[in-house]
């Protein structure tokens, strides 16, 4: 997932200080700033009487709120929602961001008014280089070609295509559990994140190309991880300072950033994915690329459209599920009470059925399912989802949402609203026991019944939700969790005096659109109760 955060500015050669300095020097003149601020105001007389959306007062000439978001933008946005209400706007240099924290208002904007609120913003790297010519799904504007890519993804990521992968996922989960136990025995404790990343990568690579790798030392795996992370950096503010501060567009050419981005995409995406496609099409396994290749004409997609779509799916489907479980284990390491409840469900099932569960047995695991949802609620892996763009002016309950403004669901504020979730800072899986349906079912139904909002909205609702929620990722997470919990107790590592080191779940690493816990270790201790 790309990095829309300000912290990404620190990752690149064009850093925040440079942006701020250049901006201030360039526009000490308030006139220019005013010109920018009126850039997105409407001239339509019908919209004249609409209310102005409030904005935080911490704003600077020219750069607006760009630096006021600080190091934890999600938390700062929650603070502003508490002060200003469920909708406010930010001036991000030349861009206007509309932040929404109320789920009903977000539903009205992204679903009811979805025909006007589902495009994607301009971005020098994502739109002009990565998705050049409107290829792919995640970063293209809502065009006919986007519709065709989306239909292909929805058809191929649907349950019937993904169901047969159950056995592959069980094997991945068994290998992961074995390596966590062995590494703990060998080293005293282990970081679960590498293993979880490898499982997610293998599952998504099997889905797309029918390929997997044995070890996280595999050079192909390492280069894909590099590709995903660098793509996230280029996809952020640093990859396109010109969209925020047009005056700096030239800098990207002068510094050679544009050329670097073009070369990066050619070498790390086009060449690599062309080879993967060839292997997938000629391999023996049924996979996404094979079906797409056969049905190319039906979907109206060319080679490059398919290639970018596959890249979108690998990028979006690897980090997300791995990080979700990495957060969940970090939380659960400190909560033996929750581990025992999940283990009671598993032991009960195994005693009755003489086998470990399949995903189709999910109904026997309400507490496990509720724990997964509570993990996503307490630690949403994206602070702002993937931004949408208003393709026209919108009247949203009397508020004027200007054309071309960037529309964002404030994940942290939405998931920590005490009116929606009592005692929001506590980890309480029981709150989801009355929402037994899968997240995919609830996200596609009435807003009144939606359990959480991590998969975005409306026409852009994460198509991997079928994988992420009922199929691949939720299935993947289900198999990982049932196998790990059946065979292991998870305990914090011990210090030199044998005292437990508490896993810190309040510290974040902000990768941009996604965030992870700081690297942590745990002990995976074999359970004597495990029957298999
Ligand atoms: C826990 C796991 C996941 C989370 C939290 C997540 C979250 C999201 C979010 C917030 C969006 C943006 C929605 C919007 O614009 O309103 C999105 C889009 C997307 N996701 Fe996921 N995702 C997850 C897993 C996956 C998986 C497993 C796949 C692929 C198999 C995937 C593929 C995509 C794609 C292709 C898009 C772009 C859709 C479009 O723009 O039309 N995601 N996801």
Outline the structure in words.
The chain is an alpha+beta fold. It folds into 3 domains: 7-40; 45-100 and 387-395 and 404-411, no CATH class; 125-337 and 465-526, Cytochrome P450 (Cytochrome p450), CATH 1.10.630.10. 49% of the residues lie in helices and 7% in strands. It contains 22 helices and 10 strands. The chain has helices at 16-26, 30-37, 73-84, 103-112, 126-130, 144-156, 159-162, 166-187, 193-209, 219-234, 241-244, 249-254, 257-282, 288-294, 296-299, 303-333, 336-353, 366-378, 411-415, 439-444, 465-470, 472-487, and strands at residues 87-92, 95-100, 388-389, 394-396, 399-401, 406-409, 488-491, 508-510, 515-517, 523-526. The strands form 4 sheets. The chain has a 4-stranded mixed beta sheet with strand order 1-2-6-3. A two-stranded antiparallel sheet has the order 4-5. The protein is globular. The two termini are 37 Å apart. Residues 1-43 have low confidence and may be disordered. It binds protoporphyrin IX containing FE.
Summarize this, please?
It is built from 22 helices and 10 strands. The protein is α+β, with helices and mostly antiparallel strands. The model is unreliable at 1-43 (pLDDT under 50).
């Amino acid at each position: 997932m790309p990095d829309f955060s300000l912290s990404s500015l620190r990752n690149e050669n064009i850093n925040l200080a440079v942006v701020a300095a250049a901006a201030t020097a360039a526009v000490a003149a308030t006139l220019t700033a005013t010109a920018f601020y009126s850039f997105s105001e409407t001239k339509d007389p019908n919209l004249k009487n609409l209310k102005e959306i409030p904005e935080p007062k911490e704003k600077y000439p020219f750069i607006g709120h760009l630096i006021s978001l600080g190091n934890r933008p999600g938390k700062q946005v929650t603070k502003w929602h508490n002060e200003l209400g469920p909708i406010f706007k930010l001036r991000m240099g030349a861009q206007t961001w509309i932040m929404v924290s109320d789920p009903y208002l977000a539903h009205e904007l992204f679903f009811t008014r979805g025909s006007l609120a589902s495009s994607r913003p301009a971005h020098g790297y994502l739109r002009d280089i990565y998705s050049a010519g409107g290829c792919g799904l995640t970063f293209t504007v809502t065009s006919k070609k986007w519709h065709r890519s989306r239909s292909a993804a929805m058809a191929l990521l649907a349950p019937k295509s993904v169901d047969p992968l159950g056995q592959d996922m069980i094997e991945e989960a068994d290998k992961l559990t074995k390596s966590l136990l062995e590494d703990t025995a060998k080293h005293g404790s282990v970081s679960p994140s590498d293993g979880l990343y490898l499982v997610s990568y293998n599952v998504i690579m099997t889905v797309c190309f029918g390929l997997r790798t044995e070890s996280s030392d595999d050079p192909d795996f390492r280069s894909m991880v590099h590709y995903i992370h660098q793509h996230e950096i280029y996809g952020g503010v640093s990859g396109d300072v010109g969209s925020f501060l047009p005056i700096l567009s030239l800098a990207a050419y002068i510094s050679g950033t544009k050329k670097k981005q073009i070369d990066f995409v050619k070498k790390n995406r086009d060449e690599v994915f062309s080879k993967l496609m060839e292997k997938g099409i000629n391999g023996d396994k049924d996979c996404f690329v094979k079906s797409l290749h056969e049905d190319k004409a039906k979907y109206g997609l060319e080679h490059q459209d398919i290639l970018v779509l596959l890249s979108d799916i690998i990028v979006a489907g690897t980090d997300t599920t791995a990080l979700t479980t990495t957060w969940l284990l970090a939380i659960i390491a400190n909560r033996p009470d929750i581990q025992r409840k999940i283990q009671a469900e598993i032991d009960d099932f195994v005693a009755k059925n003489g086998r470990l569960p399949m995903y189709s047995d999910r109904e026997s695991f309400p507490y496990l399912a509720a724990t997964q949802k509570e993990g996503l609620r307490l630690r949403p892996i994206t602070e702002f989802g993937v931004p949408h763009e208003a393709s026209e002016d919108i009247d949203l309950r009397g508020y004027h949402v200007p054309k071309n403004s960037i529309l964002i669901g404030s994940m942290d504020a939405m998931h920590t609203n005490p009116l929606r979730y009592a005692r929001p800072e506590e980890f309480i899986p029981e709150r989801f026991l009355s929402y037994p349906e899968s997240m995919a079912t609830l996200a596609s139904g009435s807003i009144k019944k939606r359990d959480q909002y991590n998969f975005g909205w409306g026409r852009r609702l994460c198509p991997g939700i079928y994988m992420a929620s009922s199929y691949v990722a939720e299935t993947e997470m289900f198999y990982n969790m049932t196998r790990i919990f059946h065979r292991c107790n998870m305990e914090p590592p011990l210090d030199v005096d044998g005292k437990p080191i508490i896993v810190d779940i309040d510290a974040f690493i902000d990768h941009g659109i996604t965030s992870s816990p700081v690297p942590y270790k745990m002990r995976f201790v074999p359970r004597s109760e495990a029957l298999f």
